[in-house]
Design brief:
heterotrimer; A alpha/beta (about 1000); B mainly alpha (about 220); C mainly alpha (about 450); A: about 1000 residues; alpha/beta; six-stranded mixed β-barrel; C: mainly alpha
Chain lengths: ~1000, ~220, ~450
């Protein structure tokens, strides 16, 4: 794969031919072509067949490979779609415990990072282009003098890793260099979990939750569905006890959330209490004492909302002994985690809703302390060689460590990373990291299950995997990732026998890292080979999940414990949280994630100081919604200056409902300088305020107005339904009283008279059902759709103009105007109306209705009157106001789904129910001469959805899932009283509030 | 006024009338010409032989040697794409026969160097048209129906105009075109006298979709 | 010679004594004899600059795409459509005056019909640009026309946009023919009075060999009446069809049966306003005060009140039905227009279209040329504002609050609008300079002595 010319546009001299001009030229030439009619003549193309193609390949048919993507070290099992050996789409692996077939925004977007033209594609020495060979030579020399002193000057800095192979490599390295040191640091780390379990049990353990067993759940500033290793699986398990279906009376679970800033998981809560993080320990502590002391809970009128909440939760938890669950978030101090452990133990949840295992991380250390000691060593001049494997500490280390400055005190530093980032710039050597989709590796998921990461394509940018990088420090420095990973698992395999050697030797050249590893299934089928092939095929190594471990909370842990008093209401608290879409900054240059409307805030391309409307009012910085009713597109907000322990940052303010008063949240990961075209620039750097003493939250923030304003690109600024019953909702009680509460007479097509005779759909009738009860707004569907359908990104400027292109959006509304109003999520794709308003107004018939009820959009016929969008009540149509799709960067073309047309300038586009998947499945069934099976066609959004909130199918097939769901009493059509007869319908939201609650 | 007669002679009105008539004809003729051009083989490239790296003859391989289409176009029954033969496929035979024929030099060169042969595409549909070979075969559309008598082509050319009009001819009335499945690869196949009736039977037995479904935009465009 | 009195008012249709020769001379001299005034060059020059701006804006548009305009989702139509409807509306007065008033035998139309018709053509020309330019892929505009093609596809005839194409083309064609036929006798006059060979030949060709023989007149009169008959329904049809663009959609604020009459009235309203805007300076500049008299201006003022009242009625009925239908979306839009993000535009249009014209109830103001001129400008502004309010406010807050947004024109939107205004006036300048602004033939008829008229009849 040639890579230099991928970036040729950037290499051009300033002002010669840049992207915009290029599009201009294209636009003009198309115009001329169109006018002169010559555009209708097909260009002459070449066909370039293989000389000798890979085995079992069918031209034009996609292949799927099981592998895994990691996030914060933990694995998510994936199936990756490959067209002619180009990975184009990541799906969840149904066999994998962390995925069960679902996925999340990070894994969905990983395929874009793979092809990112901004990725580093050279070895750099002192900033100059160099070769890996020279790196090896230099390294051998340096390694030589380290050997003389058992590597006392060698330090390795990694992120948190679960990879057994990498761990064993490092152990091996530490054997060779006993005096060397291994440090780990991630800005979004699990220190508090670790310290919490140390505090409670005296040892570090992994805590695994069983949401499918839990009836009452209490979250202490935790966001298990969007953040943390088990997020996808937990969301699925939770939804199992959240579905309300006719006839089935499986108890619905109840979720209590106490949190400082709104989270995805918190938005699902039946009872949500917004308090400052600092006050959460007090709440948890009092709850613990009340449950331990005696169960005489405050029956008298509760004095504050907190103690009212404690009473409410306490009673409910006790009522549900053994099936309740208390979870503390990573941002809460160790003590709160310890309290959570104790509460779970006390409530007999351990073994039922909570289980403990050995830590999944290869080596659990307190990240901050680990980095602190490294910096100390550096400053003491003890460090001569520093190998940084991934991560970007120069950017995201606690500001009081001055890590990037101290880096310059190390004689020899090398950094392995995807981008030439802030850290690379300060290291003597920079080595391009191979993406997970281009290299061999392995990783464990939340329950310890290990997966082999297999490459789907040879490294596009000549990158090296961490395994190869670390091998360079050993004697066997030319070992390939394949050898290393396979070698490790062979040692794990009991009945490994002699002829394995042959296999490994036959696999040393890079080219053979093409993903047809199935090819060598012909190899001698000894025990290991079978196991290895099975692991590759299934995407996980059998029986590697960790065994349950029995631990007990230390006795008299809470003997003298007194909950801390409420924090001083005067001072404002600052919270640091990973960004919902670009996390700690590692995804900064992923334009899909940058443009993804962040759950709840719906901000794109920026971070902001999130605060409650009250606080904003207090500071006089609440953004003007007023007469415009809140504009989809631009939100003009004020810039404030944040002053926190001596450091200041200027940042825009964004008021969000449900945020705790006297508290603000800022998201990490923005304000990058060396991220790339998309990542460098946007937002402000929250790390500048973050210090080892205040990793997650601290009080004492000063906010001063600057009077300046800033435009935030926000895709939904109006969160009130204006009484339009868009998301119909009720409490479980109300539902039991009237299951058909969501039905409206006006919605009934039979009641709507028409001059035209009705149309009956024989054969398939494609339809979709979306359960808003279990949608938590995680937005995985949005990114999945973007990847599947070649949806372009438009950039902040265009989002400000309300021109983003997402085919499916997640609307977020509030139940009412009450301060602690519940949140409602509603994914809105094209509704595929049977009476589609868009169709009758198109002058050229570019949008039409299919015999199976699809609302088809034929891009090549569209002239772009945009009349259809005006006439679409759901506003799901998207228009290419400019030529958004990048048609000139060669590497960008590789990611495109060849089954979907890439749209040109001036045409309308919208959700097609993934018609390419429908056609593919239909053609397969027909050529095999069989009927289509229900569930054979899965839309991209449905496949990604962790909670299975989206179901697609043939509603004429009465036995299909979608038909059954549409028969549910809670089924209703959005704006159905317009007689649009949408094929996409919704199941009304049902919440399960505690009936003792004072509210409502 | 005198000068009137100098400029506007007695025939002035006739000249004017002619001008008007001519202008009208020019307008109509222009439109007609445009429409004709769009349907012409200049636009469609029908019957235009593309230059190829070597003069591969379907007539020889199919017509004379009787090699089955699927020997080279391997995935035609399983996939959207019929599949272009790898150099390896050519070498399978040509390592034995015509091993020194200068015409075949590009094949040997490709096989030795590992650089693929770059053919010029003969049947070139626009990118927004998603044609699938496998489904057409399984519904009894013969190779020759669209590709013509390749077994008689010395140099391969595009037999059909491949315009939307042409596609729709069959998608609107499939019974006039389709043939029994076992005749699909038969180049000599002649339509029977009672094609409409046979076609109608095949349409039912092969579950060919009705006209409505076959002419949906999304059948071919996505 | 006696004065021709008009059945509408006490004033004469034309003032003073006139002879055939005098009429012909005064009107034809504007074209043939008079030195071109410096002011003409100045005015035309300025307008020409705006035409250049238009060309630039269009080039930029074709080059960069529709994105240079302010349109977005939800407001996918903006300036372009507002301008289109506005210009088409202005075009209406011409046909109305020349066709309907002719059939109604309204003598006073004679002085103004010629340049009213010219105005119609130029306005429709400006209007016609926008439906083309606002397309995402303008180079495929011909897909809206039914023509045989290799895709065997036709336009989608259920779409009002296709009806538009036919309506506007027909209107343009008929207007051109009507205007030209009406001009033939005058062109012949110009030919006969030509001073140079060049003008003689040009007008000679244009006048199609007109010799003014009785037979010519016989054919001419008949054809002119037939064309008038043909043109009459167009006055109603065009803007009815244009209004369907909105009325057929389900968008609250558009989906309303009142739209066709409401739009036609609005069209005549703005059309007459524009005629006033043109007539007042023309009669001053070319000393035609005695041919285009106070009486004409007053009549047009009266038409303004009448149509203004129809518009007021339409507004009221919109409110009423929004309230009476109980449709929550309609209700919301009505309130949003009054008090929402575009309240200013709304009240501006109320002020210009409803309030200001009421002053015309006062005779003194009706006969105050300065006031009439200012008022006509106000009405033009008001009518554009109305189109803007209809197009934008209905879209920006429609059904889904989550998709609500705001719209504002970009620099290019304004440039394009200004450019078409420039084009319109540039063409107008050329017209008054090169062709007879008032129909000489009809004028002669108007002042003909009764006995002469008897002979004709």
């Amino acid at each position: 794969m040639k890579t230099r010319n991928d970036t040729y546009l950037k290499d051009l001299p300033e002002g010669f031919l840049h992207r915009r001009d290029f599009l201009r030229l294209m636009g003009a030439s198309i115009a001329l072509a169109g006018l002169s009619g010559c555009g209708l003549r097909q260009p002459v193309e070449q066909i370039v067949p293989y000389v000798s193609g890979p085995e079992d390949r069918t031209e034009g048919a996609p292949l799927f490979y099981a592998t895994a993507t990691t996030h914060g070290g933990y694995a998510l099992g994936t199936l990756v779609e490959s067209h002619e050996f180009r990975p184009t789409k990541v799906e969840g692996n149904p066999l994998h415990p962390a995925s069960l077939g679902a996925s999340d925004i990070f894994s969905q977007a990983s395929v874009l990072t793979l092809y990112d033209p901004d990725r580093s594609n050279n070895v750099l020495y002192q900033g100059q282009i160099d070769t890996y060979e020279n790196f090896l030579i230099d390294l051998r020399r340096k390694r030589g003098n380290q050997q003389t002193k058992n590597g006392s000057g060698l330090r390795i800095l990694t992120e948190n890793i679960t990879s057994p192979t990498l761990a064993s490599q490092i152990e091996g390295l530490l054997k060779d260099f006993p005096a060397a040191g291994w440090h780990q640091y991630e800005p979004v780390n699990r220190d508090n979990e670790r310290d919490g379990s140390m505090l409670a049990f005296g040892e570090a353990v992994e805590t695994i939750y069983r949401f499918d067993q839990a009836d009452v759940i209490l979250l202490l500033d935790a966001d298990p569905f969007a953040d943390g290793p088990g997020r996808v699986r937990y969301a699925r398990d939770f939804s199992k006890k959240r579905r309300v279906r006719k006839g089935i009376d499986s108890g619905m679970n109840r979720l209590y959330a106490v949190e400082s800033s709104p989270t995805v998981t918190g938005s699902m809560a039946d009872h949500r209490l917004a308090v400052r993080s600092a006050d959460i320990e007090g709440l948890a502590g009092r709850l613990l004492l009340e449950l331990t002391g005696n169960s005489s809970l405050p029956t008298s009128a509760p004095e504050t909302k907190i103690s009212e909440f404690i009473g409410l939760v306490g009673r409910d938890l006790i009522r549900n002994r053994g099936s309740s669950l208390v979870i503390a978030g990573r941002s809460q101090p160790a003590s709160v985690h310890a309290i959570a452990h104790s509460l779970n133990a006390l409530l007999g949840n351990v073994g039922n809703t909570v289980i403990y295992t050995e830590p999944v991380l290869a080596n659990t250390v307190n990240n901050v302390e680990s980095l602190r000691s490294l910096v100390a060593d550096i400053n003491a001049g003890k460090v001569e060689m520093l190998a940084i494997v991934g991560g970007n500490p120069a950017y995201d280390a606690p500001s009081d460590f001055f890590f990037s400055e101290s880096l310059s005190n190390v004689a020899w530093t090398s950094h392995l990373s995807l981008y030439e980032d802030e850290t690379s710039a300060r290291c003597s050597w920079h080595i391009p990291l191979a993406h997970e989709l281009e290299s061999w590796g392995d990783a464990r998921c939340f329950d310890g299950t290990a997966s082999i990461i297999q490459p789907l394509i040879a490294p596009l940018y000549d990158g090296r995997s961490p395994h190869e990088f670390l091998a360079a420090f050993t004697e066997n420095y030319v070992a390939t990732g394949y050898e290393i990973v396979r070698g490790y698992w062979k040692t794990q395999n009991q009945d490994a026998n002699s002829n394995n050697a042959r296999d490994t030797n036959s696999k040393t050249d890079r080219s053979s890292k093409l993903p047809d590893s199935r090819a060598n299934s012909a190899k001698a089928a000894d025990g290991f080979e079978e196991g290895w092939q099975a692991s590759l095929r299934n995407g996980l190594v059998a029986n590697t999940a960790f065994q349950t471990k029995t631990v007990s909370v230390k006795a008299d842990l809470w003997g003298q414990y007194l909950p801390p008093p409420a924090a001083d209401p005067g001072s404002i608290e600052i919270n640091f949280r990973p960004d919902p879409s670009i996390y700690d900054g590692r995804y900064s240059n992923n334009a899909w994630l940058q443009e993804l409307p962040k759950p709840l805030t719906k901000l794109t391309w920026d971070n902001a100081v999130l605060m409650s409307p009250n606080l904003a009012l207090q500071l006089g910085v609440n953004q003007e919604v007023g007469s415009t009713g809140g504009s989809h597109g631009t939100s003009i907000v004020e810039i404030v200056e944040l002053k926190f322990d001596g450091k200041t940052v200027r940042a825009p303010v964004f008021a969000v409902r449900g945020h705790a008063d006297e508290s603000v949240t800022i998201h990490l990961g923005y304000g990058r300088t060396n991220a790339g075209e998309a990542g460098s620039g946007p937002g402000f750097n929250a790390y500048a305020l973050r210090s080892s003493g205040a990793m997650w939250s601290a009080s004492g923030l000063e906010i001063t107005k600057t009077g300046e304003t800033f435009s935030l690109a926000c895709t939904q600024a109006h969160h009130s339904m204006e009484g339009r019953e868009l998301v119909r909702h009720a409490s479980l009680k109300e539902y039991k009283r009237d299951p058909t509460f969501a039905k409206r007479e006006a919605d009934d097509p039979a009641k709507q008279i028409s001059l035209y005779p009705g149309w009956t759909y024989e054969g398939h009738a494609w339809a979709m059902s979306i359960d808003t009860s279990i949608c938590n707004g995680c937005s995985a569907c949005v990114v999945a759709c973007q990847a599947e359908n070649n949806i372009p990104v438009v950039g902040k400027e265009e989002v400000l103009r309300a021109r983003e292109m997402h085919w499916i959006r997640v609307d977020t509304y509030f139940e009412d105007n009450a301060e602690n109003s519940r949140t409602l999520h509603q994914p809105v794709p094209c509704q595929h109306c049977e009476n589609a308003p868009c169709e009758i107004v198109c002058p050229v018939g570019a949008t039409t209705h299919s015999a199976e009820g699809l609302n088809e959009m034929t891009y090549n016929r569209c002239v772009g009157t945009r009349y259809c969008s005006n006439n679409c009540p759901y506003k799901v149509r998207r228009f290419n106001f400019f030529g958004y799709a990048d048609l000139e960067t060669p590497v960008a073309q590789l990611q495109r789904n060849p089954q979907v047309t890439t749209r040109s300038r001036g045409v309308m586009e919208k959700c097609t129910y993934c018609v390419q998947r429908i056609q593919y499945a239909k053609i397969n069934a027909e050529t095999e001469g069989r009927e289509l099976l229900d569930g054979e066609i899965v839309t991209a959004c449905q496949q990604a959805c962790p909670t299975e909130a989206i179901v697609f199918g043939d509603k004429n097939d009465k036995s299909s899932r979608v038909a059954k769901l549409k028969a549910e009493p809670t089924d209703y059509g959005l704006l159905a009283d317009l007689n649009t007869r949408p094929r996409t319908t919704y199941l009304a939201t049902i919440k399960n509030p505690n009936e003792d609650a004072q509210k409502e | 006024m005198g000068n009137e007669h100098r400029f506007f002679g007695p025939s002035a009105n006739e000249i004017m009338r002619l001008c008007i008539i001519f202008a009208f004809l020019a307008l109509v003729g222009g439109c007609w010409a445009l429409i004709e051009i769009f349907g012409s083989s200049y636009i469609t490239r029908q019957h235009i032989v593309q230059p190829q790296p070597m003069p591969f003859s379907h007539k020889h391989h199919v017509g004379e040697e009787g090699i089955d289409c699927r020997y080279c176009h391997t995935s035609v029954e399983r996939s959207a794409s019929a599949g272009m033969p790898e150099t390896q496929t050519c070498i399978n035979c040509h390592s034995q026969i015509y091993t020194t024929d200068p015409v075949l030099e590009p094949v040997r060169a490709s096989f030795i160097s590992g650089n693929p042969i770059q053919w010029t595409r003969v049947h070139n549909l626009p990118g927004y048209v998603y044609f699938d070979h496998s489904i057409h075969l399984s519904k009894g559309v013969g190779c020759a129906t669209c590709h013509g008598r390749v077994d008689q082509m010395n140099l391969t050319e595009q037999a059909a105009p491949l315009t939307m009009e042409w596609c729709l001819k069959c998608h609107r009335d499939p019974e006039l075109q389709i043939r029994p499945r076992d005749e699909v690869f038969n180049m000599e196949y002649k339509q029977p006298k009672d094609q409409p009736r046979l076609g109608a039977d095949l349409v039912t037995s092969y579950h060919v979709k009705d006209r409505q479904a076959l002419t949906n935009c999304s059948t071919c465009h996505r | 010679m006696q004065k021709e009195t008009n059945n509408l008012g006490s004033d004469p249709v034309v003032e003073g004594q006139h002879s055939y020769d005098e009429i012909s001379r005064r009107i034809s001299d504007i074209t043939l004899v008079r030195k071109t005034h410096l002011m003409w060059f100045a005015g035309f020059g300025v307008m020409f600059l705006f035409v250049m701006l238009l060309c630039y804006a269009i080039a930029k548009l074709l080059f960069d795409g529709i994105g240079i305009w302010g349109v977005n989702i939800p407001v996918a139509w903006g300036f372009a459509i507002a301008n289109f409807v506005w210009w088409i509306g202005i075009g209406h007065a011409g046909t109305l005056i020349s066709a309907i008033l002719l059939l109604m035998n309204q003598k006073w139309r004679t002085s103004i019909n010629r340049f009213a018709e010219a105005m119609t053509l130029f306005a429709v020309a400006c209007a016609g640009l926008f439906p083309l330019l606002h397309l995402g892929r303008p180079y495929y505009f011909y897909w809206l026309l039914p023509y045989p093609n290799t895709m065997v596809l036709w336009p989608q005839f259920r779409s009002p946009l296709v009806w538009d194409v036919f309506a506007v083309f027909t209107y343009l064609a008929v207007s051109v023919v009507f205007w030209y036929i009406g001009m033939i006798p005058d062109l012949a006059t110009l030919r006969d009075r030509a001073r140079s060979n060049f003008t003689f030949r040009i007008f000679g060709i244009l006048s199609l060999g007109w010799r003014g023989s009785a037979e010519h007149w016989h054919h001419y009169e008949r054809l002119y009446l037939i064309l008038a008959g043909l043109a009459t329904p167009l006055v109603v049809s065009v803007h009815t069809v244009v209004s369907f663009d909105f009325a057929v959609a389900i968008v609250p604020g558009w989906h309303s049966t009142i739209f066709p009459p409401y739009f036609v009235a609005g069209a005549i309203f703005s059309g007459f306003a524009m005629v006033l805007t043109l007539a007042i300076p023309i009669r001053a500049a070319f000393r035609l005060k005695d041919l285009i008299t106070m009486h004409h201006l007053e009549n047009m003022a009266k038409v303004l009140i009448a149509t203004g009242l129809i518009i007021l009625y339409s507004y009221l009925s919109e409110f009423f039905f929004a309230y009476y239908s109980g449709d929550r979306f309609e209700r919301y839009i009505v309130l949003d227009r009054m008090f929402g993000g575009y309240a200013f535009m709304y009240w501006l249009l109320i002020a210009c279209n409803i309030v200001a014209p009421q002053l015309l109830w006062f005779r003194r103001l009706r006969r105050n040329v300065g006031f009439l001129f200012v008022l006509s400008l106000l009405v033009n502004v008001g009518m554009w504002t109305e189109r803007y309010v209809i197009v934008v406010t209905s879209l920006h807050h429609d059904f889904m609050p989550s998709a609500w947004g705001m719209y504002s024109g970009t620099w290019w939107d304004y440039a394009t609008l200004a450019g078409t205004v420039g084009l319109f006036f540039a063409l107008m300048f050329l017209f008054v300079r090169l062709l007879p602004v008032i129909s000489m033939a009809e004028m002669r008829k108007l002042i003909a002595p009764p006995n002469a008229k008897k002979e004709e009849a």
